[in-house]
């Protein structure tokens, strides 16, 4: 991983990557010094542990002799000496061993500060882009990262607005003498962002069926979904819908925020003539027409008609109770304010 990250840094900018050629040997020297010094300390600590064990074993074996010759005070003093020696050696060994983490953090933060310092000079000279500097601090693997854009056309309009406001602001600052000419280009343009996304795995989400602008779509996938209407704490309505789903061969899942509530819902559904079971195992495939109640956290349910699959959240079942509770809290706050 270290070799891969260093090579990737050189691919982004070979000049800025020279910082790693100083940081890596420095970290290696610090760790080697810690290892060289902590080895003998652990040996002395082990010898101190042996002395404490030997002292305890002698006292337990010859406890009657110690009592007969009234040597209790001497043995207590003897144990205190070896115990204090163990404490001293342990503090030295552990105190040296824990220096590895401060050393690593020191080198890491010094590297980040150096990247920001030298990267700022390179950006000011126009030899490095903002995105390249950010890539040194945190970058995503090209093959393992999926970028998801929700409503790409709307995002495009939003980016154009942000870019226009930024450009006008920089013009005013430049005219007022607050910034230098090289500091106006501090964010990526829309075209450069799209060009970067074309080289990565990208998923576009849209509620309407249209061709996204500035994207070459390789494959279109249509997914029909429906929202779940609230049941307002009515198990009769819930049971009716579950029976309808069961007749249609749906796989139904009810998600509860607590396991106790889930077990109670299973029993309530059984009282209404519906067979349901509680499970947290999602590895096994559900059978058609089955109802599973599970434990989890879900804000709102959904339905996939083509897959004949529905998920109902606890908030869908007890929506009215939560609203009443929120309204009660709102009234309490208003009364307190008055």
Name its key features.
338 residues; alpha/beta
Question: What can you tell me about this protein's structure?
Answer:
By secondary structure, this protein is of the alpha/beta class. The chain is 60% helix and 10% strand. The protein contains twelve helices and eight strands. The strands form two sheets. It has a six-stranded mixed β-sheet with strand order 3-7-8-4-6-5. A two-stranded parallel sheet has the order 1-2. Strand 7 and strand 8 form a beta hairpin. Helix 2 runs antiparallel to helix 5. The longest helix has 44 residues, at 18-61.
Helix content: 55-70%
Structural class: alpha/beta
Encode the helix/strand succession as letters: HHHHHHEHHEEHEHEEEEHH
How many helices does DSSP assign? 12
Quick take:
This protein is an alpha/beta fold and 338 residues long. The chain is built from twelve helices and eight strands.
Annotate the secondary structure layout.
Layout: H1 2-12, H2 18-61, H3 63-68, H4 72-97, H5 100-124, H6 130-137, E1 146-150, H7 152-176, H8 190-198, E2 201-205, E3 226-227, H9 235-247, E4 251-256, H10 259-271, E5 277-278, E6 291-295, E7 302-304, E8 309-313, H11 314-317, H12 319-337
Parallel strand pairs: 1-2, 4-6, 4-8, 5-6
Antiparallel strand pairs: 3-7, 7-8
Helix pairs in contact: 2-4, 2-5, 5-6
């Amino acid at each position: 991983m270290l070799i891969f990250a260093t090579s990737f840094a050189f691919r982004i900018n070979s000049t800025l990557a020279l910082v790693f050629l100083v940081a890596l040997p420095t970290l290696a020297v610090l760790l080697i010094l810690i290892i060289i010094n902590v080895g003998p300390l652990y040996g002395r600590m082990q010898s101190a542990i042996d002395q404490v064990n030997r002292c305890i074993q002698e006292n337990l074996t010859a406890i009657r002799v110690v009592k007969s010759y009234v040597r209790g005070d001497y043995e207590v003093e003897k144990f205190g000496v070896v115990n204090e020696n163990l404490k001293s050696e342990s503090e030295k060994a552990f105190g040296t061993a824990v220096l590895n983490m401060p050393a690593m953090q020191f080198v890491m933060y010094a590297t980040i500060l150096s990247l920001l310092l030298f990267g700022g000079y390179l950006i000011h000279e126009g030899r490095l882009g903002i995105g390249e500097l950010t890539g040194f601090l945190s970058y995503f693997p090209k093959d393992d990262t999926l970028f998801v854009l929700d409503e790409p056309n709307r995002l495009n309009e939003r980016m154009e607005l942000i870019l226009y406001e930024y450009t006008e602001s920089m013009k005013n600052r430049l005219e007022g003498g607050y910034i230098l000419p090289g500091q106006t280009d501090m964010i990526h343009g829309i075209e450069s962002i799209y060009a970067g996304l074309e080289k990565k795995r990208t998923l576009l989400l849209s509620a309407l069926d249209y061709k996204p602008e500035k994207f070459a779509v390789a494959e279109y996938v249509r997914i029909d979904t429906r929202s779940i209407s609230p049941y307002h704490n009515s198990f009769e309505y819930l049971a009716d819908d579950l029976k309808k789903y069961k007749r249609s061969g749906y796989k139904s899942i009810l998600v509860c925020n607590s396991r106790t509530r889930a077990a109670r819902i299973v029993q309530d559904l059984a009282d209404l003539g519906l067979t349901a079971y509680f499970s947290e195992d999602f590895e096994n495939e559900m059978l058609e027409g089955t109802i599973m109640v599970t434990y989890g956290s879900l804000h709102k349910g959904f339905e996939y008609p083509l897959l004949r699959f529905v998920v109902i959240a606890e908030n869908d079942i007890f929506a009215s109770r939560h609203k009443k509770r929120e309204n009660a809290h709102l009234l309490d706050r208003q009364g307190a304010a008055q």
